[in-house]
Specification:
Keywords: Hydrolase. The protein is α/β, with parallel strands linked by helices and 321 residues long. It has nine helices and 13 strands. The protein has one domain (3-29, 45-316): Alpha/Beta hydrolase fold, catalytic domain (Rossmann fold), CATH 3.40.50. 29% of the residues lie in helices and 19% in strands.
Length: 321
């Protein structure tokens, strides 16, 4: 069954099924033994706990190698049919799974938006035959899985977006600009294009003058036997996502703090300019201060980015299902 047939099935069945209360569930992203490009390995994920600025407990999962998707479905009475896949950041060393993942999912749920927190694989030579494709494979698989189960979860398959913070923003923008380069099996020809992007202090460019060096090195770097790193020029061009925007790139909501010392704000500005040059709708929300890594709540500001972001999603994608 191809993507067109799946859409027809959706519109036929959506009125015939009732809401099934799934609550939160965590799914393996691939069937057993089917992680693409996986090498035999003994890599063990490491979970570190630390305190957030309000004293709340947060987790950072490093060297992630077992991709999973945690499902957050809204109450049936609030369900808008809109969904968003969330890619937490972590410099392509791991995922800040709580404040850039689960907490955001809960906030989206409050407004009737289904959310799916993606624990994606890190680009590791020890676990993947082609390390730089592993995160994108997982992002594409997450979009594919949500679309293919849209009927079951009472979602509109044409209202599936992707969000990401920091390096997760690089992954989300890669999914939004590289969707025609399918890097996963897709026998049903399901659309891998997100319908919109939400980018929170994103890494966008791999150019020397702008990039977050750790994210670039971890994703595309080649380590020589003497321990030095080489960055291939082709990788810089391929993964500088301001260079990959086309007339069919999805619309975006972009937010960043101007004083970010880790991921320079020019990353967002360049991406916004590239979208505007192609006539792609883009909305921005900038902070004067806030630094990097604040997640949903910038403690230096009274007005937070999540509320206008949710309004933007509902206004642009919330009409008739």
């Amino acid at each position: 069954m191809d993507w067109g047939d799946l859409k027809k099935v959706y519109f036929l069945l959506i009125f015939l099924i009732g809401f099934i209360g799934y609550g939160q569930q965590t799914l393996k992203l691939y069937p057993a033994g089917a992680i693409p490009g996986e090498l035999p390995h003994s890599v063990q994920e490491v979970v570190e706990s630390y305190k957030g600025p309000e004293g709340e407990s947060r987790r950072f999962i490093s060297i992630t190698s077992q991709p999973e998707l945690t499902v957050y479905l809204p109450e049936a009475s609030r369900n808008t049919g809109i969904a968003i896949v969330i890619c937490p950041g972590g410099g392509y060393t791991g995922v800040a799974i709580d404040h850039e993942g689960h907490q955001m999912a809960q906030k989206f749920n409050e407004s009737g938006i289904a959310a799916f927190v993606l624990k994606y694989r890190m680009p590791l030579d020890a676990t993947s035959s082609r390390k730089e494709t592993a995160p994108l494979q997982d992002a594409q698989r997450a979009l594919q899985l949500v679309r293919e189960r849209a009927v079951e979860w009472r979602l509109d398959p044409d209202k599936i977006g992707i969000a990401g913070s920091s390096a997760g923003g690089h992954l989300a923008s890669t999914a939004g600009t590289h969707y025609e380069q399918g890097v996963i099996a897709n026998p049903g020809k399901t659309s891998l294009r997100p319908d919109f992007m939400v980018l929170n202090y994103p890494v966008i460019s791999f150019a020397d003058s702008l990039t977050h060096e750790g994210s670039r090195r971890n994703l595309i770097g080649i380590q020589d036997t003497d321990g030095t790193w080489r960055i291939p020029e082709t990788g810089i061009a391929d993964y500088s996502n301001e260079l990959q925007v086309s007339a069919d790139t999805p619309p975006a909501f972009v937010t960043h703090a101007v004083d970010d010392p880790v991921v320079r704000v020019e990353n967002s500005i360049l991406f916004i300019a590239a979208l505007q040059q192609q006539g792609i709708p883009v909305t921005s929300f900038f902070y004067a201060k806030g630094g990097h890594g604040y997640g949903m709540v910038n403690p230096t500001a009274d007005r937070q980015w999540m509320n206008p972001c949710i309004r933007w999603i509902l206004e642009n994608f919330g009409g008739g299902r």
